[in-house]
Amino acid sequence: MATPWYGVNQASNEAHNTENKRSWGRPLLRNRCETLDIPFLIVDGAKDIRARRVVDSLEAALPDVRRVTLRRAGHLPWTEEPDGFRTAVADFL
C-alpha cells in the first residue's frame, strides 16, 4: 500500500512493532482476548506470507469469532479479493 505518494510511516511502524514484540505470546494478552464479550470477524488471505499461527492464535483466543479465509488473497484481502471481503463483512453484519 506504500505508493510514491504515501510512503511508509516509519515512526508508526516502529512503535507498532515494538508493542507487538512486548505483548505477543504473553498470557495477559491472551487472557484479555478471552474475556471480550463482543463478536469478531477475522478476514484473512490464504496467500498471506505472515505465519498462519498468528491468526490461528487470535482466532483461538476470541470467544465469539467468525473467520473467513479468502483463497486468492494475501496480506490485503480487501484489495486483493474485494468481492469476497465485502461478502464476508456483509454476512457478518
Automatic annotation (TrEMBL):
InterPro entries assigned: AB_hydrolase_fold (IPR029058)
Superkingdom: Bacteria
Residue ranges of the region described as Disordered: 1-21
Full protein name: Alpha/beta hydrolase
Source organism phylogeny: Bacteria, Bacillati, Actinomycetota, Actinomycetes, Kitasatosporales
